[in-house]
Design goal:
Helices cover 54% and strands 10% of the residues. It has 289 residues and is an alpha/beta fold. The relative contact order is 0.08. GO terms for molecular function: oxidoreductase activity.
């Protein structure tokens, strides 16, 4: 009788897993063939590539140069930048520029970096720079320098290259959500590393809970999405301590997430985007004290 629920669940698993991406690739390929757009006309003249002198970053530089884009190489080692820039110009006949930047230094590098990038028409950013601590080390064995470099390169660099004013959705929710994904991944990894040591790590990843920060957003949610008050939520979350390494904190939240996961990711993203735009509109109209 309810066989269609299983069919729908399998379809959504396939759709969110690979079908949506595959359909997008097929449609994009068809449009490219019909419109005959070249990369510089479609995206802009310059591609900025971080971590561009080796590996994936260098290949992006070469492949985009092959498609006619000028290349701005950004990496740490000056002599490598000079060599790669010269080779790309020779092989593909495009313009190149380069910037020697050490992303591990953190926020201090971004002002001069933006000033340098202001001189070119940036059409594409390939933010490839990253840092990998020694794989043989556990979290407590990582040096402070490795931890700081990993955060500055893997998270800080991705978050600092922002779209122009007016193009972000609202209120830094993108960076907030991304930071929570990092926290969840860190907590789950720590729980695994600490297994058998007598030390426990629990990750609590709730849905919407009514707090001072979330109350405006909570008002915009549909009525069927019940929002828990903090006392009820925390009482339930405390009950889970020592029992599981990962929890939503209250049984209502995984039920809500389960139903949301039955939607295509594109529909879910669109719905959240509409809510955030409404929230932005409400808050901009509300005078601050």
């Amino acid at each position: 009788m309810f066989w269609w629920i299983g069919v729908y669940a399998v379809f959504m698993w396939c759709y969110n897993g690979f079908l949506e991406s595959l359909l997008g690739i097929l449609w994009g390929t068809l449009k490219t063939l019909l419109l005959r757009e070249r990369f510089p006309q479609k995206y802009g003249k310059w591609a900025v590539i971080t971590g561009a002198t080796d590996g994936i970053g260098r290949q992006y530089a070469e492949q985009l140069a092959r498609k006619g884009m000028n290349i701005m190489l950004v990496s740490r080692t000056e002599h490598k930048l000079i060599a790669v820039a010269a080779e790309i110009e020779r092989k593909y006949g495009v313009q190149t520029k380069w910037l020697a930047v050490d992303f591990s230094k953190g926020p201090e590098i971004y002002k001069p970096l933006r000033e340098q990038l202001a001189s070119i028409e940036v059409g594409m950013l390939v933010n490839n720079v990253g840092h990998l601590p020694p794989p043989s080390q556990t979290f407590d064995e990582n040096s402070d320098q490795d931890v700081t470099a990993t955060i500055n390169l893997n998270i800080g660099s991705s978050s600092t290259f922002r779209p122009p004013p007016g193009t972000t959705l609202a209120l830094g929710m993108t960076i907030y959500a991304a930071s929570k994904a990092y926290t969840t991944s860190l907590g789950l990894g720590l729980a695994h590393e600490l297994r058998g040591t007598g030390v426990q790590c629990q990750t609590v990843a709730p849905f919407v809970v009514l707090t001072n920060r979330s109350q405006d957003f909570a008002k915009l949610l549909p009525r069927f999405m019940a929002v828990l008050d903090v006392e009820r939520f925390v009482r339930s979350a405390v009950f889970t301590i020592g029992k599981t390494a990962h929890t939503c904190g209250h049984w209502m939240h995984p039920v809500q997430i389960f139903h949301i996961n039955f939607l295509p990711q594109s529909v879910m993203a669109l719905s959240v985007g509409v809510l955030l735009k409404r929230l932005r509109s409400v808050l901009l109209k509300t005078p601050t004290c």
